């Protein structure tokens, strides 16, 4: 049965992200599970552009983008699933951290990581997608081991 948080993730990041997050929750260790839920809460509570937090709204933002940037609904859905929307001034922007990506990047998620390595949305998406990046996994473990004094 789909739980309430899963419906929230689908509305925010799309069905693919929900599936990947569920897969990682069932396969990952306790540190990864805690990190995933921590990221979801952080993204819900502290995104810099909450007005465009919904996946569907970000897909719609691409209707005004040039065909050179987005030439199909599939591309728009993929960018929106990565938290990106189209800004009228011509850029791709992350709704969580507001990073502005250079247009024309062939791998927006990689570009996002490069420009804003501390964004918790890209950390969540990379972890959910099964990344085995050592820096990311060390981050996850370090967050788990942090103690309240
Ligand atoms: Zn970001």
UniProtKB/TrEMBL annotation:
InterPro entries: BIR_rpt. SMART domains: BIR. SUPFAM superfamilies: Inhibitor of apoptosis (IAP) repeat. The keyword Secreted does not apply. Keywords: Membrane, Transmembrane, Transmembrane helix. The chain crosses the membrane at residues 34-54. This is C2H2-type domain-containing protein.
